[in-house]
Design goal:
homodimer; 332 residues; alpha+beta; 60s Ribosomal Protein L30, Chain: A; four-stranded mixed beta sheet; 10 helices; 33% helix
């Protein structure tokens, strides 16, 4: 069992932060980093706790991947470029540190991020990742910029991760292959970072979908002091999802389940061709699900039917976990 | 019991980060911050876990203070100016969040730091603080710059926090007033930040004393590829410490016990008048305890006696906790 110092050395070797902008990396009291001229500093932090944010039997490598990915998702939602990560590992025993770090570094490589610091400590399994980077001055996209009549867009699809969790918790049946894809969406989210950066100056407001799409849209409504009307039947679903849960009503609950780590953004209707063009360049599907309006609240309004107000409640980390069975149909 | 969103709002209200350089603070996906021109970004992160880094019955306000203070200590050791903090709270119940945040903000105000982000989540009590700030280009003081014949200095005194822990664990007796002072050193460390910043360009190497003075000096030796000779009898002790543990040999163990959050630095002998002058301006006592040498290893060499090699083992977060009684004399 390596001691703490030996462990930090091994992590430093794995991380090999030889990026030009890392002046002092792992191994000193703090990291010293060069931010490019004209950029504002962007910082996000998220902690994943075993049994709360991931099932306790999740592969450690996936835990490391996801801990960084959820922060990359926050950066995507600001239109910001992530550059450096610090990871603070709390571990029952130090052996898990290297496997977690390997997963984190795999995600870091995908997004061009250097691991530049952190700490390791004893305790119940948790990982706190801080992500740092930059955005050109005045270019950050916040939740607060949505305008009346903006169209509301979703990048990618919704619900695969929630369905993956339902599979893990044996509330949902799927073929081994579909199950593997859904669980992968839960364990190894891949936020559409290039799309978030590409939407600078186009999206008026943006947020990452993590608590559940209705809850996250609710954050945009509050921050922008506006309301919205959406058609939940337009929520985008993957082919796997449509196969495993063919009933649209049963699917809707999963699609609002959170842990998607994709983007919700608003843009004016005349930007629609630009939005679809940027999305195509990034290889990401984008779907309009409704529009912003002056009238407060979130409304459901499909096919000219009378709009009905819906709740924006999503995942609350302090609420008791709900594990009700889902009335999905098993695959044929 | 507030839900997560209400909690974040209350924390945001407490934090009121109205600093000019905070472009986007608490409440969005990430913080956006202005770093002054010509500065390099400095980042440190540290997690405190209940029962590992602080006794489980520590006041929550002290937990918040200490979680930030240990990071300020890292900044002091780089000669860097802290500006912004992000706090990631893991809590068995959300009620503790506000008390912890109050303590963190008290420490933040003392050092001119704005709380700009973070998250709250359910789980065993732990707090992960990320501290961000700047240092003028090329001015960061690392562990690696020590030179042969540099004098080794300690800021402040050593061992009060270790004695405080010994009091809490009932391994050490002290009068109620002395006990309160020692426990305060444990719960609410006050790192000499102004001194660390003042020593830019004067100190060749610097580290914060957190794992124990010998272990931390060991880090400097390794990073600088040098050895050192010190006289442990010169380790500075507070008046309270000398009163509670009058025997110098019994005191030495406590003085190497860690959790001091003060500075160890090296500087050339001809800088000694500048060092003492800067320290006087900062209201901090500084003490020379030895010097750097070419010969590897850490050596004890008092009063011309033959030097003896000593170990640089300090606090290892993964080693089992040692709680042996201390042979201190109770106060008269």
């Amino acid at each position: 069992m390596p001691n703490e110092l030996a462990l930090i050395r091994r992590i430093a070797t794995l991380a090999r932060a030889d990026a030009m902008d890392v002046r002092v990396g792992i191994g000193d009291d703090a990291a010293v980093l060069d931010l490019p001229r004209g950029e504002q500093l962007v910082a996000a932090v998220d902690t994943l706790v075993a049994g709360v944010h991931f099932p306790t039997d999740t592969a450690l490598e996936s835990v490391g991947w996801k801990a960084l990915a959820v922060n990359v998702s926050d950066f995507a939602a600001m239109g910001a470029q992530p550059r450096w990560a610090l990871s603070s590992l709390t571990l029952p025993n130090p052996d898990s540190a290297l496997e977690i770090t390997r997963g984190l570094l795999a995600c870091a490589r995908r997004h061009g991020i250097a691991l530049v610091g952190g700490d390791t400590t004893r305790g119940p399994l948790a990982i706190c990742v801080t992500l740092l980077g930059g955005v050109p001055r005045q270019c950050a996209v916040t939740r607060a910029g949505a305008r009346v009549d903006d169209e509301i867009w979703i990048a990618g699809t919704l619900g695969d991760a929630a369905a993956g969790l339902a599979c893990v918790e044996q509330r949902l049946q799927a073929s081994p292959r579909d199950r593997a894809r859904l669980v992968r969406a839960l364990d190894k989210p891949t936020p559409p970072l290039a799309l978030g950066i590409g939407l600078r100056g186009v999206a008026h407001s943006m947020i990452d979908v993590s608590d559940g799409v209705l809850a996250d849209l609710g954050h945009v409504l509050r921050a922008s002091s506006l309301g919205a009307i959406i058609d939940p039947l337009l929520l985008p679903a993957s082919a796997v999802m449509r196969r495993v849960v063919p009933d649209p009503v049963a699917r809707e609950a999963l699609q609002c389940g959170g842990d998607d780590y994709t983007l919700l953004f608003t843009a004016s209707a005349r930007s629609a061709p630009r939005v679809t063009s940027i999305a195509r360049q990034c290889g990401v599907r984008v779907t309009r699900i409704g529009k912003m309006q002056k009238q407060a609240g979130l409304w459901r309004g499909a096919n000219g039917a009378r709009p009905a107000r819906i709740a924006t409640s999503g995942f609350d980390h302090f609420a008791a976990p709900v594990s009700a069975p889902i009335s999905g149909e098993p695959p044929g």
